[in-house]
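Attaching the record inline, Q. Sequence:
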Amino acid sequence: MGWFLLLNLTTACIAYLFLYPRRNLIGFHLGMNIAMAAGGGLALGTGVILINLFPLHFIEVIISTALLGMVAGGLFGALFDYQSVLTGYINGLMMGIMSPMVGAAASEGPMFILFIELFILSCYVLLLTSAYRS
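Structure, as predicted:
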């Protein structure tokens, strides 16, 4: 399951590098959606994975996941405008706090984590194709 975490971080970095040269061509509505999906998606995937890897370390997992979500949402939002920074930051914070709870409640095995990963990767693909078309 640890390699899912590496996959999430790699996908986020690739998406950021793809969006950086196109940041001036993307409108603020799409930019806000990108910031929310990137920060929230990375926090969701990381929180579910980390709480399954370290089930008795709730405080550490929540803090690290919330910080990662806030940083990712803020960085993706900074590509566009200040409102997107705030939206990505807050969405990353909220998903970072909530995702370890979801992961702890759904600790039935790797099927849930696989579903979450497919959902997050499909969101990244959808956002990148939207950004490419704009």
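The two ends are 35 Å apart (CA to CA). The first helix runs from residue 2 to 19.

More tomorrow.
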